Amino acid sequence: MKSLRLLFALVAVLTLVAAMACGTKEVVKEIKVPGETIVVEKEVIVEVEVERIVTVEKEVIKEIKVPGETIVVEKEVIVEIPVEKIVTVVKEVIKEIKVPGETIVVEKEVIVEVPVEKIVTVVKEVVKIVEIEKPIIIEKEVRVVQTVEVPRGEKVMRARVCCMADSFQPHYSGSGSIDIIYNFIGVHLVRTDPITQSQTPDLAERWEFAPDFRSATYYLRRGAKWHDGEPITAKDVAFSYKMYLDPTSIFALQFQGLKGGEAFTNDFDNWVTNDLPGVIVVDDHTIRFEFDEPDRPFIELMHGLQTRWTILPEHLLGHLSPEEFRQSSYWKDDLTQGGPYKMARHVVQQFIELVPNEDYWFGAPNLDKLILVYIGSPDATEIAMHRGEVDISIRGGLSGVDAYQGILLDPNWSVARNTGRNPAAYSFSKNVDAALKDIRFRQAFAYAMNRPAMLEGILKGRGVYAPINLSLNPDARPEWKTMYQYDPDKARALLLDMGWDSDRVVEVTLTNPRVTDKAAMPIEQQYLADVGIKIEFNVLERSTHANVMTTFAYELRRAGSRLPGLGGGENPANKFRREWHSDGRDETGYAYDQMALNSGWDAKIETLQAAITRDEAIAAFQVLGDQLMQDMPEIATIGTMSYYAVAKRALLPGYEDIGLHESTATDLTKVPFYPPFWRGTDRSLYAVHLWDVRD
Questions:
Q1: Closest by CA position to 515, among listed 606, 382, 626
Q2: Residues 6+ apart with CB under 8 A from 107
Q3: Are 242 and 264 in contact (CB under 8 A)?
Q4: Amino acid 304: pLDDT
Q5: Dist. CA 189–CA 310, nearest whole Å
Q6: Global pTM?
């Protein structure tokens, strides 16, 4: 336990270092080269009390390849500023250094002129110089955000996205950037209203469901047009839902609940001539969906995931073969839709420029331009926010709680919070051996971790924890949350009972860990080691990780949960069917194992899916949950509170009811709170045609 206390102490030191009163520290390391001693690393930290952060700047002097060696010169300048007046000039010259063939001078000047009472300046340099045969040219490059020029007087908003697909094909990729783009340009039957916690009309003005949920009828608004002026009709809706049954589509399984859906998928190459009985065009403005069995979850999913399930223009895509449809340039260069915005420019991996659709049925948007800017790095996003280069981050967050605290103290920004992220979870590959499938091992794994202590030590209590994310679902039994409380003795007893080999090392595969993950992982590792479970983390690059996941070439993974937990209006039946049914992904192999045990697991999921009343759904959900709480195919840890930052110049209707910009809070625990409806970004992406800016 001493090592755990040291880990918590280290996390605390890293968290609090910016708040220390005053100090100076130098670390110098030297190496010898012919004719001279060179300073390799120098760090000067000068800290003085501050009241709030106004700006953050980071620069990188890029890596340069030269014969025989790579030279790296990096500079990071972080300037934290509040109120009054001060001028700080820092100039350093790193001495002339003679190396064979050339004399090199490396110098740096930092001039900071800012209004402050108290200031913290941190300057960090790393300089590496090596023996070469010819002179070195050191170039300086500073790049934060792609600049897009706009005429004076235009209403322009810039929204950051952390990922940007090259192609916006909604059928075959899980990229969140595809959801984002269709939120602005797409056509949807209904839309989510996070304020009223309900679905409201969009292309469909009204709809009705059969009492047994075997059919749903939608009545489309008249006069709706595609961006090219062609009318939007029920035939476009029918065409779109047929195309989601493409067997290579990630949504095909979910759409097979439509009457005749499975047969249509199995003969998809002949989709043009084949009939789909479950999609009926009544007239140009009426469409009816029919299901083989009562399917309330699919109807609810159809409403909730409408950003991805955009309606497609049959007149532009309906003549294509399946392969032509998949590879069409429409997904990159055209994207004619009918939503509030139209795509004007798309510079791959840089930005997307959107302009208003003057014919949008709810009225033309308020903005003259909306620019989606690609910034992958959370740190670069933080810089861009302080510099006023973006107005909101609609896909991807900042590097951690401290970053949001800094944004909150910037007078040009507001911050809101919601219930938080589902905790990261350990889950098992379907290919693991009998020892890792043993329920006693999984229960011991859950008992070994002190989640409340981790939450307090790492996140200062600002987040959530759970033994399994299912216990955070609104329909969970209250006692699920208190199961598997920290009990290392019980964990050891379970491992002893099963004959666990305490010398065995279990590999945990993951990619792109967040700041909280990086803090939690060594603590989780130590907790597990204390009871006799040795784990090693294998952090992979994204593409390699995706391949490993697809081939199940791993033992455990640490990632987001596959279970329905916090947040959302998605009916749990959909996630159970998609992730945990033997006909679904079943990446843990749990459903397959249950088939061997004849436990009726698949039938229990189907009972949940067939539930019509709310009480029936809760009862079926809890039957599934009772079994999972016993078997623990997934073990959760801790999760952060979710924060969303909005520039004060940006007026978003999704935040008006919580008084976001009127808040005077200076601490994240006091900022306006809102419950998510379907997902955490509901508020940010609500009614985008009503977005506006004030200057």
A1: 382
A2: 91, 92, 93, 94
A3: yes
A4: 54
A5: 8
A6: 0.66
Q: Mind listing the pLDDT tens digit for each residue in 366-414? A: 999 999 999 988 899 999 999 999 999 987 788 778 899 999 999 999 9
187-338: which CATH topology?
Dipeptide-binding Protein; domain 1 (3.90.76)
CA–CA distance from 590 to each of 62, 405, 448, 495, 549 (Å)? 48, 41, 22, 21, 16
CB 439 within 8 A of CB 625: no
| Pairing of β 156-161 and β 392-395 | parallel
* 210 dihedral zone (left: phi>0; alpha: psi -120 to 50; beta): beta
Residue 60: predicted pLDDT? 41
What is the Cα–Cα distance from 468 to 455, expressed in whole angstroms? 15
CA distance 623 to 617: 10
Domain with CATH 3.90.76.10 in the chain: 187-338
What pLDDT is attached to residue 64?
A: 37
* Antiparallel, parallel or unpaired: β 425-428 and 634-636: antiparallel
Per-residue tokens: 180? 């984002």
Place of tokens 């004030």: 694
Burial per residue of 482-501, b for 16 or more beta-carbon CB atoms within 10 angstroms, e otherwise: ebbebbbebbbebbeebebe
Query: How do 505-510 and 534-539 pair as beta strands?
Result: parallel
Q: Residue 59, exposed/middle/buried by CB under 10 A (0-12, 13-18, 19+)?
A: middle
Per-residue pLDDT tens digits for 440-464: 999 999 999 999 999 999 888 888 8
- Main-chain phi, psi angles of 304, to 5 degrees: -75, -35
- pLDDT for 36: 44
- For 494-548, the DSSP string reads HHHHHT--TT-EEEEEE-S--HHHHHHHHHHHHHHHHHT-EEEEEE--HHHHHHH
Alpha-carbon distance of 569 to 190, in angstroms, equals: 14
Please report the pLDDT score of residue 551 as a whole number: 84
Q: May I ask the CATH class of domain 425-639?
A: alpha beta
All CATH 3.10.105.10 domain ranges of the chain, comma separated, are 425-639
Bridge partners of residue 340, in order along the sequence: none
Question: Given this model, what pLDDT does residue 533 score?
Answer: 98
User: Looking up tokens 């993950």, which residue turns up?
Assistant: 517
Q: How far apart are CA 267 and CA 100, in angstroms?
A: 72
Closest CA to 167 of 149, 181, 157, 156: 181
Helix 488-498 vs helix 515-531: crossing angle, to nearest 10: 60
Q: Kindly report the backbone phi and psi dihedral angles of residue 106, in degrees, each rounded to the nearest multiple of 5, phi listed first.
A: -115, 120
Question: What are 42's strand-pairing partners?
Answer: 28, 125
- State the virtual CA torsion across 250, 254, 255, 258 in degrees, nearest 10: 160
Residue linked to tokens 């924060």: 643
Q: Where are the alpha helices (DSSP H) in 107-228?
A: 176-185
Cα angle 653, 656, 660 (rounded to 5 degrees) comes to 120
Beta bridge partner(s), residue 15 = none
Cα distance between residue 121 and residue 77, in whole Å: 8
List the CATH code of the domain at 344-419+641-693: 3.40.190.10
- Residue 171's nearest CA partner among 115, 110, 236, 252 is 252
Those residues of the chain that have pLDDT short of 50 are 12-148
Q: What distance in Å separates the CA atoms of residue 213 and residue 616, rounded to the nearest whole number?
A: 14
CB 216 within 8 A of CB 402: no
Q: Are 296 and 285 spatial neighbours (Cβ–Cβ below 8 Å)?
A: no
In the chain, residues under CATH classification 3.40.190.10 are: 344-419+641-693
The whole-number pLDDT of residue 86 equals 35
